[in-house]
């Protein structure tokens, strides 16, 4: 800050000096301008005097010319006198002319000097004015810069001062905190000493107990430590299960895309360059097509193996490479698919070469085929890499010495790189195959079947590319999690010794979990006494009591039996009606067919009728057609009547069911209200008995006045007030009970009336 202030002050001094110099220059220029103005005024005065002198000389010349004219006029009269005086006039004239010539030359020279001085003055004045304006603008700019700098410097100075004050306050607070920290450190050191002493004593006690009670320490031996159950990380297990689910979804996408790719490639081999429908294809393509037809038996197990692997990862297990036994099965399925790819690769390459040798293959198409030739080799090589690394990951579950935990990160990184390479190869295959498809469409013998097959292959390759890209990005994003979570092991040990120890550990874990679960059985919840009493009252007056429900079940069973009987009856009626309807339809069809045969015979008898009778024949032909349209009209009318009655029956049955349910509900409510009424009457009787007892106590106390003298007056007043309060409460309670009883009786009457009305309506229906 001090250096910044010093620099700002130095810059301020330089700027002040520049401003002072500019002000001095402007003052000197102003003085020069004043001097020039004074010289200009002097020249103007001289010019005025010269013009005045010139006017005088001009008047003098005019006078002399007038005198000359007079002298010439006089010379005519007296030539003699003129001749005598001519010499004098000539001399004077020559003198005047010389004097005049000199004055004219001097006047001309002065005019020239005046003009030059005037021009020089104007030019100098313009230069000085322009320079003055420039200097004024520079001075204004410098002044603005100086003002802004002074303002900036004042602001910075104020800011620095504020910062200085804040820093001083902060330093003071830090000093106080340092003092507090010193005190705390002293206290902590004292506590640490106490804790060390306490822990030392506890350590000695624990060591003595361990030496006396513990027969051996299993964590010292790796064989025994591998049997210890590690700490359960539920979040880690859920994360691994989620990742396994995502991987299973990606593998399913890849399996579907591979199935489509191999199937459409088989169709393509049978179509191009020779169509198997029109001509026989080569034995090579026949064998290639036969092998491609078997692709599902090699591709489907990949999905099944991934599904089994996903199902083996649960929340309760410990998922590490030593316990994922299902990974070995997935590796075997991948090896079988790799064998399938190796089996079809030579045939695929030979098929592409055979296609290049065909007469339909152009140079561009041949180049695309050779690019696909190279891509297929690269694809098989990538699957070989993936199989190698997946088989390495499956080794810890069978032979732990085959892959050390230090190499897990290397294997996972190479799998991610292989998946990215797989994605790049599929992108190249998609690009080259799209170019090949466009070139094959230009072939003159290209059929629509070939175009659609190429489109299907392109769509399957695109799906395969998308699935591989998702799989590669998924594996790369979760690479660290795979490395850390799958290298999880028992406490104090580096790894599991063998798959057998891992399996034993899982069994111990299940036993421990079952034991802890048995210990954590929750106790049966107890119901509070007041809530139990309230529930008992509700149970006594409930509409869903056991007796009511049993009666409702019995009634509903009886209704179901009646409805079944009615259903059988009406089904028989419907069958009889259907048989009658079929008979009526048959009769109607027979009558209509007879009518049609009669009209056809009439048309055959009159084949050569004249053109005038055409209208009558057309009418006779139209009449039977109209008669034939009776059958659909009758059927449609019957359908309408049937649908109408069926809708009406359904509506009536729904109303009947609703009325039955309402009547049952009202009956249950009536029974519940009757129960409540009986309970209320019982409570009323008990309250009336209590009221009688209380009134008897009051009368007994009022009838014994001598005994009251032995009791204090205050105590007697309190007992009297308590009895009066109890009597008033009982009377209020009796009034409320009477009101509720009357209301319940009214409700029962209304419910009985409504149930009677509903039963009557049901009987009428």
TrEMBL record:
Region Disordered, residue ranges: 603-623
Annotated GO MF terms: RNA binding
Q: What Pfam families does the record tag this protein with?
A: KLRAQ, PPP1R21_C, PPP1R21_helical
Q: What is its subcellular localisation? A: Early endosome
Q: Where is the composition biased (Basic and acidic residues)?
A: 611-623
Question: Coiled-coil regions in this chain?
Answer: 26-74, 132-198, 546-598, 670-704
Segments forming domain Protein phosphatase 1 regulatory subunit 21 N-terminal: 4-100
Q: Name one GO cellular component term.
A: early endosome
Q: Which residues cross the membrane?
A: none
| Keywords assigned | Coiled coil, Endosome, RNA-binding
Name by which UniProt lists this protein: Protein phosphatase 1 regulatory subunit 21
């Amino acid at each position: 800050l001090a250096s910044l202030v010093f620099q700002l002050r130095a810059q301020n001094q330089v700027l002040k000096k520049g401003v002072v110099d500019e002000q001095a220059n402007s003052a000197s220029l102003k003085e020069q301008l004043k001097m020039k103005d004074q010289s200009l005024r002097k020249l103007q005065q001289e010019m005025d005097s010269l013009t005045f002198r010139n006017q005088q000389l001009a008047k003098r010349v005019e006078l002399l010319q007038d005198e000359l004219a007079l002298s010439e006029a006089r010379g005519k009269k007296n030539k003699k006198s003129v001749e005598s005086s001519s010499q004098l006039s000539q001399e004077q004239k020559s003198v005047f002319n010389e004097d005049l010539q000199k004055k004219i030359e001097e006047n001309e020279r002065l005019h020239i000097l005046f003009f030059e001085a005037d021009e020089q003055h104007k030019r100098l004045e313009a230069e000085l004015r322009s320079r003055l304006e420039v200097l004024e603008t520079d001075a204004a700019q410098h002044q603005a810069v100086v003002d802004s700098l002074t303002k900036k410097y004042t602001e910075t100075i104020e800011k620095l001062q504020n910062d200085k004050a804040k820093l001083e306050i902060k330093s003071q607070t830090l000093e106080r905190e340092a003092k507090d920290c010193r005190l705390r450190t002293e206290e902590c050191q004292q506590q640490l000493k106490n804790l060390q002493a306490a822990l030392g004593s506890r350590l000695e006690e624990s060591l003595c107990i361990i030496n006396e009670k513990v027969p051996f320490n299993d964590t010292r031996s790796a064989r025994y430590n591998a049997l210890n159950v590690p700490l359960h990380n539920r979040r880690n297990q859920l994360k691994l299960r989620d990742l396994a689910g995502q991987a299973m979804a990606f593998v399913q996408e890849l399996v579907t895309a591979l199935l489509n790719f191999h199937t459409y490639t088989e169709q393509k081999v049978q179509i191009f360059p020779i169509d198997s429908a029109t001509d026989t294809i080569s034995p090579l393509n026949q064998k290639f097509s036969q092998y491609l037809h078997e692709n599902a038996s090699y591709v489907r197990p990949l999905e099944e193996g991934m599904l089994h692997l996903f199902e083996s990862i649960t929340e309760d297990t410990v998922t590490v490479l030593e316990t994922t036994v299902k990974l070995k099965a997935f590796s075997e399925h991948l090896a079988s698919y790799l064998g399938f790819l190796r089996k079809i690769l030579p045939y695929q390459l030979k098929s592409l070469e055979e296609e290049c040798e065909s007469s339909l293959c152009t140079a561009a198409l041949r180049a695309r085929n050779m690019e696909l030739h190279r891509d297929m080799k690269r694809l098989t090589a990538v699957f070989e890499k993936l199989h190698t690394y997946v088989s390495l990951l499956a080794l810890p579950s069978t032979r732990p010495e085959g892959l050390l935990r230090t190499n897990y990160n290397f294997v996972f990184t190479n799998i991610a790189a292989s998946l990215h390479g797989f994605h790049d190869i599929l992108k190249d295959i998609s690009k080259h195959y799209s170019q090949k498809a466009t070139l094959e469409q230009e072939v003159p013998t290209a059929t629509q079947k070939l175009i659609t097959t190429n489109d299907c292959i392109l769509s399957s390759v695109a799906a395969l590319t998308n699935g591989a890209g998702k799989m590669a990005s998924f594996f790369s994003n979760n690479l660290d999690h795979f490395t850390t979570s799958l290298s999880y092991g028992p406490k104090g040990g580096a790894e599991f010794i063998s798959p057998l120890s891992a399996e034993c550990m899982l069994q111990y874990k299940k036993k421990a979990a079952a034991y802890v679960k048995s210990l954590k059985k929750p106790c049966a919840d107890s119901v509070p006494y007041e809530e139990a009493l309230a529930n008992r009252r509700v149970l006594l007056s409930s509409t869903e009591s056991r007796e009511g429900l049993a009666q409702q079940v019995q009634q509903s069973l009886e209704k179901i039996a009646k409805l079944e009987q009615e259903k059988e009856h009406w089904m028989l009626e419907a069958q009889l009606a259907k048989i009658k309807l079929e008979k009526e339809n048959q009769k109607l069809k027979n009558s209509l067919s007879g009518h049609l045969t009669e009209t056809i015979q009439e048309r055959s008898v009159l084949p050569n009728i004249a053109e005038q009778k055409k209208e009558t024949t057309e009418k006779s032909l139209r009449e039977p057609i109209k008669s034939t349209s009776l059958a659909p009209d009758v059927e449609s009318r019957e359908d309408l009547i049937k649908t109408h009655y069926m809708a009406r029956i359904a509506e009536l049955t729904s109303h009947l069911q609703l009325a039955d349910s309402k009547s049952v509900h009202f009956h249950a409510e009536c029974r519940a209200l009757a129960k409540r009424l009986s309970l209320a009457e019982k409570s009323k009787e008990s309250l009336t008995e209590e009221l009688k007892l209380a009134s008897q106590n009051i009368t007994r106390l009022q009838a014994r006045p001598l005994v009251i003298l032995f009791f204090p007056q205050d105590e007697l007043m309190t007992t009297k007030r308590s009895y009066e309060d109890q009597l008033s409460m009982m009377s209020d309670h009796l009034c409320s009970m009477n009101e509720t009883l009357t209301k319940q009786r009214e409700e029962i009457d209304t419910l009985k009336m409504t149930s009677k009305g509903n039963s009557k309506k049901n009987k009428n229906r």
